[in-house]
Design brief:
about 350 residues; alpha+beta; 7 helices; 11 strands; globular; disordered C terminus
């Protein structure tokens, strides 16, 4: 068998959402949208080998359950072949990565974006983020904005377009990560999805107010204001997710002197948010870790956000992990589970590395 060019691609993950809801675009049309919290750490890597002469549908993927990434690769081959004037062909896609599945960290989006980038690389192309976003949405119906680098954006996840660039970078934060529900994976396909056309006018106005507050938080570098937005969004998300630990999480965050909490709106990952400029920060973080342990909420990783260079988009938000010590240091978010979180995810362990 004659193999063609090989390409590689990578994509990061995220730590759930800061804000998610129904918003208005520039034309006043309602759109589902979200703002993710970037996180350094596990991501997806892809390698794609073209097979000239093979039918475009003759595309294999390993692991074999990554059907969304396989669909994305087929779409990317068609796009790249069109741009280069070559006939579409099949190939072999291989994915690697350690993003926990079912916790709301963008594992499928990361796989899809890495696959698209690997296919493009095999053609000697680098696709624009907007093109990658469009292919990702076609492959998985909704996508996280992991192709856009570190700038905070309000992203229409079902349409693959940016509704608003909120600013150059998020305010600095220290995030104490944890996993609700004992770290059990959430089958995102089983969650109810509301039609944006059915959203209550009051809800839309409330989300637009949170959007304006988040825009102000980014403009002023206010961790406190960002924390208030994230907490309000997380509280609204409980109408669907209904985490039993939510009240305990928000209460311990207040006692620890945090500015708020953020929770993945399609999973179980959560974060207690601190202002890094607050006095006694280390004491606050240690108190938070002790309180999480006392409530049986597994702590996962602690990391910072700060202004830096994003991925291909100029200045953005980058993250850095902080080792911590204490009772939660070694506890994985989910112990001994390799069960499915959905049809694309049966073989990846649903755990967050603890530091």
């Amino acid at each position: 068998m004659i193999h063609g060019a090989t390409g590689t691609g990578q994509a990061p993950c995220h730590h759930g959402e800061i804000l998610q809801g129904v918003f208005l675009d520039a034309a006043g049309r309602r759109c589902a949208g979200l703002v993710t919290l970037p996180m350094a750490g596990p991501g997806s890597s892809a390698a794609f080998v073209r097979r000239p002469g093979a039918e475009p549908e003759a595309l294999t993927v390993a692991p074999a359950d990554r059907t969304k990434a396989a669909r994305a690769a087929v779409l990317a081959v068609a796009e790249c072949a069109r741009r280069t004037g070559q006939p579409p062909c099949g190939g072999e896609l291989r994915l690697t990565g350690e993003i926990p599945v079912g916790l709301g960290m963008g594992s499928s989006s990361s796989d899809v974006i890495a696959a698209v980038r690997a296919v493009a690389d095999s053609y000697g192309l680098r696709l624009e983020p907007s093109t990658v976003a469009g292919l990702a949405v076609r492959a998985e119906l909704a996508s996280d904005p992991l192709m856009l680098g570190g700038r905070p954006v309000l992203f229409a996840q079902r349409e693959g377009r940016v509704l608003e660039v909120l600013g150059p970078a998020l305010p600095p934060l220290v995030v104490v990560g944890c996993a609700l529900g004992g770290g059990e994976p959430v089958d995102t396909l089983s969650l109810p999805t509301a039609d944006v056309a059915d959203a209550d006018e009051g809800d839309v106005r409330a989300y637009e107010r949170l959007r304006a507050l988040l825009r102000r938080a980014v403009a002023t570098g206010s961790a406190e204001l960002l924390g208030a937005v994230a907490t309000a969004s997380a509280r609204r998300g409980q109408q669907v997710l209904g985490h039993p630990e939510f009240d305990a999480l928000t209460a311990l965050a207040r006692r620890a002197g945090a500015v708020g909490v953020q929770i993945a709106h399609s999973g179980a990952v959560a974060g207690v948010l601190f202002d890094p400029a607050a006095p006694g920060l280390r004491r606050r973080v240690r108190g938070c870790l002790r309180a999480l342990d006392a409530h049986g909420i597994p702590a996962t990783r602690t990391f910072t956000t700060f202004a830096g260079t994003g991925t291909g988009t100029g200045t953005g938000t980058t993250t850095e992990e902080i080792p911590h010590h204490g009772p939660a240091q070694h506890g994985p978010a989910h112990r001994g589970v390799d069960r499915p979180a959905g049809p694309d995810t049966p073989r990846r362990p649903a755990r967050l590395p603890a530091l």
